[in-house]
Amino acid sequence: MTGQLHEKAKACFREHFWREPDGVVFAPGRVNLIGEHVDYNDGLVLPMPVSAGTAIAWAQTDGDRIDAFAADFGEEDSFTANDPEKPQGVDWRSYIRGMAAQMGGSLPAMQLAITGDLPKGSGLSSSASLCIAAGRAFAEAGGLAVDATTLARRAQHTEHDFAGVACGIMDQMAVAAGKAGEAMLLDCRDLSYSHVALPDDWGVVVIESGVTRGLVDGEYNARRQQCEAAARALGVTSLRDADLDMVENAKLPQPEKNRALHVIGEIARVREARAAIADANLSDFGRILREGHASLRDLFEVSHPEVDRLVERVQEAIGEVGGVRMTGAGFGGSVVAVMPGDKVDRIMQDYAGRALRVI
């Protein structure tokens, strides 16, 4: 956590609750380098945490309620600590209450002041960041030992039950267990993972497209349902167990066929990307990113014309060595660019106010 965000959370707490907090917790956002829409298909992914995220200042108090203040929205919430109800709409309250509901009925009364520097709807997993930060605040306040994987599962359940998004586990695991400055090779079937250091002369930048994405409009859930339908038609538990020959021989209808082709190809691209990192081969890694974007655009149909244009412009700026693709669930959000480190400053200048340097 940056010192600035830490101090901002403490200041927000003092201004709203007129006392000092007992502690401050932080959870980062994440960018996914490759492996999009495969986590709920038991696939492999390669995300990494970013420096921006969510900070929560907290303190125990008397009574049986949790009082939360979202400083960035100027909004409040108050609910019974160990019996939170779902709010009527889906907003930041959904995630705070959902995480409280996941903590096993052992939370003390407390006050929370929440702030962050992740742009909402940018595809950098602001919701997972909020969930993990809330879980860490609840664990600290309640004196509970919660490992990263358990915390990630609780955050995923919160997305499912309180926000209505049938997401996979990648975002939550990357936020809860990621290591700053390194990628995470995560197997979404068994949640085994390893940290992967990128070559020192590579740079990673995330650039906002300006198109705010939303997932609860049904498109994300529809893609998951289409993948599940394809797996059933192929006779496999998940598309992780399928291959291209199976898809061609099964004569799947559309859009299920294209969804399956993307997932199978994307899992293979994650393996190729890991090998490219090991070989320090940025040209190969860039090609993999470009192929991933084309698949998300054409087969999975989750890109956006503005995102496609941004990908083309940034790719032209960084040249043939390195690559750019949309990142996150799609329908807007951000792009990720991996490039020679000596080109990062130029990209940061060209997209000032929209770019976030990851490494």
Automatic annotation (TrEMBL):
EC number: 2.7.1.6
The GHMP kinase C-terminal domain, residue ranges: 274-348
Keyword Disulfide bond: no
Pfam family name, one: GalKase_gal_bdg
Principal EC category: transferase
Organism, as annotated: Qipengyuania gelatinilytica
Entry protein name: Galactokinase
Molecular functions per Gene Ontology: galactokinase activity
Highest taxon listed in the record's lineage: Bacteria
Family annotation (PANTHER family): GALACTOKINASE-RELATED, MEVALONATE KINASE/GALACTOKINASE
Signal peptide: none
Record keywords: ATP-binding, Carbohydrate metabolism, Galactose metabolism, Kinase, Nucleotide-binding, Transferase
All copies of domain GHMP kinase N-terminal, residue ranges: 100-178
